[in-house]
Amino acid sequence: MAAKLVPESIRMTKEQWAACREMAKVMRLRSKNEFIRDAVDFYIEWCRQPQSQRFLTTALESVIEAKVRDSENRIARMLFKLAVELNVNTHIAALDYNLTEREFYNLYAKSVAEVKKNNGEIDLEKLLEQSEEERNSWLD
Fold first, then answer.
1. Domain map of the chain by residue range?
2. What pLDDT does residue 15 have?
3. CA separation (Å) from 25 to 1, 20, 33, 36, 64?
4. Residues 46, 52 contacting (CB under 8 angstroms)
5. C-alpha span between 23 and 108 (Å, rounded)
6. Which of 45-49, 52-56, 88-92, 127-131 has the highest mean pLDDT?
7. How far apart are CA 137 and CA 103, in angstroms?
8. What is the pTM (predicted TM-score) of this model?
9. CA dist 70 → 30, 66, 74, 75, 101 (Å)
10. I need a surface site. Which of 11, 16, 23, 106 has the fewest CB within 10 A?
C-alpha cells in the first residue's frame, strides 16, 4: 500500500522548478513531484549516514564489483599469456645455451635473489653496466 501523499507548499526559484521538470522527463518519472520526492528521500538517506556507507554500498556495490571482476579476468588472461611466452623463451634459452642442470639451478637461484632484491623491477641499463663476470656469475 502506497504512503498517503500530503500536499504542502515548497518555494523554489523558477530555475529550480524548470530543472525539476527537466530531470523528471530525463528520468522518465510521472511528474516533477515524483522527482522531488525521490530527491528528498535520497538526501535524507545521505544525511542519516555519517559515513554514507549504506548509501554508497547500495548505489555503487554492483558497479564496483563488476569492474573489479572484469579487471581480475583481464589480468588473469594477460598473466596466462605472459606465462606461456616465458615458458617458450625458457625452452629456447635452455636449448640454445645447452645448460646443465646445475647451471640452470644456479641461474634460477640468482634470478630469485635479484627479483627479491629489486622487488620485481628489472633495470636493463643496470644489467648492461655489469661486467661480463658479474653477468655470468651463476655459471660457477
1. 99-140
2. 94
3. 26, 9, 12, 12, 28
4. yes
5. 63
6. 88-92
7. 10
8. 0.41
9. 36, 6, 6, 9, 41
10. 11
